[in-house]
Amino acid sequence: MNILEIENITKSFGSNNVLKGISLNVKKGEVVAIIGASGGGKSTLLRCATTLETIDSGSIKICDDVLCSTDESGKVNYCDKKQLVDIRSKFGLVFQNYNLFPHFSVRRNITEALIHVHKMDKSKADKICDNLLKKMGLSEKGDSYPCNLSGGQQQRVSIARALATSPEILFFDEPTSALDPELTQGVLQVIKGLSEEKMTMVIVTHEMNFARDVADRVIFIDEGVIVEEGPAKEVIDNPKHPRTQKFLSKY
Amino acid sequence: MYLAITMGNIKSAVTQLGVGLGLTLTIFILTLLFSMPLGLVVAKARLSKNKILSSVIRAYISVMRGTPLMLQLLIVYYLPYYVFGISLRSMSLGSINYRYIATVIGFTLNYAAYFAEIFRGGIQSMPQGQYEAAQLLGFSKTQTFIRIILPQVVKRVLPSITNEVITLVKDTSLAQILSVNEMFFAASALASSQVSVMPFVIAGVFYYCANAVIEFAMNRIEKKMSYYN
């Protein structure tokens, strides 16, 4: 079963065509890593899939719910507001710079949406929060504020926040790009742990070793198109396309 | 004239200025009470995607900031009479005369414009990522603003708000133009009857003390909000 179905989407900012027809299906339990040079369209693809940008043409389905599709006249139709809220509850996004709420404690960062959006009891939300913090190795940090945590800890809190609503799929936008190598490891361990639990994930990353170890499939995007895709080990160790070879030779 | 500064004169000046101070403080408190929420609404309207609304608000802010507050008080006071022909006497609310009401309306309209610009700056300084994170977690626009954005904005704009609040205490003296018996008006009257500048000096001490309290309180609030950065 496909959790995510992206079909032939395009997106431009002014005259800059960032995505030039990208299709991507992600099966339940699959981990897909998206690699490529900066400015190639990786983040835009992720932002389109997570409703933060609107597409110019194509279609996106999440868990069989149509987020948007293009009709015969070429007009893109997005689902209505109510469906949008519903679709958004089915995925989580982990940002490069965390985007935690600085005025909330770690606990409130994780439970606020459960209590005020999903109308969950506080005690139940706290229980979910405790479990997630334990999983993230942050059991002691519930009452801390984000500013008192290291970057790696903040990113793990943001993963916990994204997981709190038990999404079907988790997107990561360069989750370790703001971290030093030591802190990076802690975050990658957590993501690896999720992959072992068969969490469906799409990860934009510059960590090639990590992509090879954790991802089932790697997609190399350059200049708005998918240049090469395949099993992670194959693409990263033996890239076929000259552009992929050139890109990977720098790692 | 050298006899003017006697203990008796000072005592009566302090008592009478105390009454004026009471009125000054009510103008101050009512203005804050009305102008801060109004300022927030104006800021939101100024940031509205509706071009007509945002330009109307821009013009309002521009006029409020670009003309003397004293003149604005006069206009609020005389407008009902000259435009609608309503007698000013009939506009009093029980024992509160329209001079006082016009003062509070004038101050509120003026300060709301300043607060609006402070709030707008604060709202616009918020990183887009906060909105995006809130949106994806399912918060509605109102929830996002009230739970996520506004608390952070308040912390950011607090020093500028303190500035305005302190200025307001001193600006209440402008109400004398409408013969409202606030502290400065009282001081002027006393100064001429006692033929002494002492009432002004005492009024100055009162203004300063009021602002010292405000400074202290705002510092406490700022400290309270410094649990994160």
Structural commentary:
The complex is a heterodimer of chains A (251) and B (229). Chain A is α/β, with parallel strands linked by helices and 251 residues long. Chain A is built from nine helices and eleven strands. Chain A has helices spanning 42-49, 81-88, 106-116, 122-135, 151-163, 181-196, 208-214, 232-237, 242-248; strands spanning 2-13, 16-27, 31-35, 57-62, 65-70, 76-78, 91-94, 169-173, 200-204, 217-222, 225-231. In chain A, the strands form two sheets. A six-stranded mixed sheet of chain A has the order 7-8-9-3-10-11, with helices on both faces. In chain A, strands 2-1-4-5-6 form a five-stranded antiparallel sheet. Chain B starts with 6 loop residues before the first helix and ends in a 5-residue tail after the last helix. At the A-B interface, helix 3 of A face helix 5 and helix 6 of B.
Give the averaged pLDDT of chain A, no decimals.
96
Strand order across the biggest sheet of chain A? 7-8-9-3-10-11
Head-to-tail CA distance between termini of chain A:
34 Å
How many helices of chain A? The count is 9
Low-confidence stretches of chain A: none
- Counted by DSSP, the helix tally of chain B is 8
Percent of residues in helices of chain A comes to: 25-40%
Q: State the domain count of chain B.
A: 1
Shape of chain B: flat
Specify the biggest β-sheet of chain B: none
CATH class of chain B: Mainly Alpha
Helix-strand string of chain B: HHHHHHHH
User: What is the CATH topology assignment of chain B?
Assistant: MetI-like fold
* Oligomeric state of this protein: heterodimer
- The termini of chain B sit apart by 58 Å
The helix-and-strand class of chain B reads mainly alpha
Q: What gyration radius of chain A follows from the Cα positions, in whole Å?
A: 18 Å
